[in-house]
Amino acid sequence: MPHADAAGRSLHYVRRGEGEPYLLIQGLSGTHAAWGEPFLSALEPGLDLIAYDHRGIGDSAPSEGSFSIADLAEDAAALLAALEIERAHVLGISMGGMVAQELVLRHPERVRTLALGCTFAGGPEGRITDRAVIGRLLEATTSGDRELQLRTSFEINVSPAFAAGAGHYEAFREMALAVPAPVAVVVEQLRATAGHDTSARLGEIRAPTLVVHGTADEMLVSANGEAIARAITGARLELLPGVGHLFWWERPQESAALLREHALAGSQ
Length: 268
What we know:
Layout: E1 3-6, E2 9-16, E3 20-25, H1 37-43, E4 47-52, H2 69-82, E5 88-93, H3 95-106, E6 111-117, H4 131-141, H5 146-157, H6 160-163, H7 168-178, H8 183-194, E7 209-214, H9 223-231, E8 236-240, H10 247-250, H11 252-265
Parallel strand pairs: 3-4, 3-5, 5-6, 6-7, 7-8
Antiparallel strand pairs: 1-2, 2-4
């Protein structure tokens, strides 16, 4: 398992494909496994994919103490430096989209193109997760029933139509159990997202930007993606009708096609 020394922090990463570097930044509790093979194999042609685990998550070194979204963005920048990558196409989803926003704002020279999926920028137009959804997640989390936790997370993060599909939950369950996400670190990630607000700075972004959001997203409603796209000059917004939070999991080929097109167009 390859690890990089990112400014003194050991981060695990998986690298595959050939072409221009493409950094994949996962969301809350997400690991390199959460991208899924259908999505990665569709995205890979012509790109050098780098999927990594945030500090304390998955196969990265354990982490103690609190951190901010800005700290996670510095981790991403340090990882690129450790891998001797000057510029990369960047995709961040959910919490990873918040990290990607901070990365491009703090290190614009590092980001060739930017893709923000199912994410949030804070500010007056930001829409946080509905209390009923949070309550359902908390009830499952505190139940002590691992199967209930997984099932609830799955049903909230995907559309009802996808949740009802044969084999979909089983694939999600296998992924979630394959790589660890310590609860204490996930709690710190949640605290970090609560302090995230780039809304007043999004207009500074100059990297070609694609915003992707499912219209059936319960975790972060699609109004968040619309607000981000309005705030970034020239940003392209792609709304996926009837798709939930994990859009790349529900629609791997369609999502990969959008993202590859955006990155490769930015290479010309």
